[in-house]
Amino acid sequence: MKLNLGCGNNKKEGYVNIDFAEACNPDLVWDLEKTPWPFEDNSVDEILAYHVLEHIGQDTKVYLAIIKELYRICKNGAIIKIQVPHPRSDNFLTDPTHVRPITPEGLGMFDQEFNRHCIANNWATTPLGIYLGVNFKVINTSYELTPYYATLLAQGKITQDQVMQYLRTYNNVCENINIELKVVKS
After folding, report:
1. Do the domain assignments include residue 9?
2. Overall domain count for the chain
3. 167 lies in a domain?
4. Residues 92, 85: contact at Cβ < 8 Å?
5. What's the Rg (C-alpha) of the chain?
6. Which of 80, 82, 114, 171 suits 137 as a labelling partner, its CA being 20 to 30 A distant?
7. Is the pLDDT of residue 28 over 90?
């Protein structure tokens, strides 16, 4: 089974399209902040979450329940494809329905191998994967640059290393972050 969470009007063929808004006519009307979701354990092969996670889970307990629910319903090896606005873009900052920044580093806190590494090195990083009993690996991250920076990069006026530095320093370098997670279950 494949799920398209928060589909809005962007329904995908071959997916169960889910949204809380009846007006967009999803296959399933469901509020993703309400757990448990109506899916069996280990029943999902792939999840699309395009411009969804930044809108849900303003309360940390609700957000962590969503993360646990993603893990519960996914099979071992399932892929979760996420697209979110970069937290330093005006697209993220100006939308009052955006309640939480989503970053590869933040999602990496649900990786138990990384959690054990942090513990072994006495780093002040909360081992959320271990605490919640979930395990996700960030397997791919890409950045959709704003046209200005994309042009500079394409013309060779800036390097990829500079782009990465700018992403950590300046606003409006990147419009969206694409993150792929792999579900790891023993």
Report:
1. yes
2. 1
3. no
4. yes
5. 17
6. 171
7. yes
